[in-house]
Amino acid sequence: MKLMISRSLAAVGLLFFLASPDSAAAQRPEKTSRVGYLTAGSQSDQGRQRRLEAFRHALRDLGYVEGQSITFQFQWAEGQYDRLPTLVADLVRSKVDVIVAVGGAATKAAQQTTRTIPIVMVAVNDPVGSGLVPSLAHPRGNVTGTSLMAPDLVGKQFEALKELVPKVSRVALLKNPGNPATALQSREAEAAAHALGMRLQILEARGPKDIDRAFAAMTSEGASGLVVLTDAIFTNQRGQIAKLAIDRRLPAVYGHLEHAEAGGLLAFSANLFDLERRAAVYVDKILKGAKPGDLPVEQPTKLELVVNLRAAKAIGLAIPPSLLQRADRVID
Prior knowledge:
- Helix content is 45%, strand content 19%.
- By secondary structure, it is α/β, with parallel strands linked by helices.
- The chain folds into two domains: 33-148 and 272-301, Response regulator (Rossmann fold); 150-270 and 304-331, Rossmann fold (3-Layer(aba) Sandwich).
- Helix 5 (104-113) links the parallel strand 3 and strand 4 (119-124).
- Helix 6 (150-164) packs parallel to helix 7.
């Protein structure tokens, strides 16, 4: 009888343990997801930090709690593209669950390092033309994310420069040869310049000293306008570039909105904050089991035109009313 009672009590105890919210199964902590964030930008750049915060805030809105359900490992190349492969390797060794790669150079470095860890690209100029994905609708592989459409916008930027300065003839084009998407943008720039009857002066820069030399060459060659292609180093040095353009009274059009905010004359681009927020949605889907290759690459849904009137006044240029009417934002 005692044996039967003991067995009954043991069975009841086992059932109570399994049903109890204090059981070991109920106490098992939720898996903490590890997200690597890779950018060629500078950690000290406040603009970059604001964009990063947009990404993190979007994840919080999706229910993630930093330090509990999600952790981050940030890698900043500080404008040095050649550091990216080493930084990606660190993320791979850390066994992150997903890599968020900002820009084409970071995404290319990530893809060349791992074909298994999911990669969410952010603001890549031309994912198909760069060879990162076979198509936007069906990216396949381990890469998906958002496109910046930069090559498609270069022609519009040249048209804006022509509208700003109708008599512009010789236009300087500033590009970074270390950026894998530069060739695509350069071809579009050459086609746009030819169609608008402009002579193009192509200048290369990989860092601050190169930028100084490029502006000296623009001045000596008599450039009457400037188009700055999208590039992480140019975004890092946007204050330097804006000042050089103003000092030389050179009308300049940029491919990132942050240039106009830093004193540049005019910028036409997608909103990078929106693209960072969209990256959070991709990360959420992948962490919940979606495969990157099954998630179509998104293009910007809205393009913005920003005009800086202070820069216009500094170089003695009157902004045409047609441009002001179309501007999404005017900086006084």
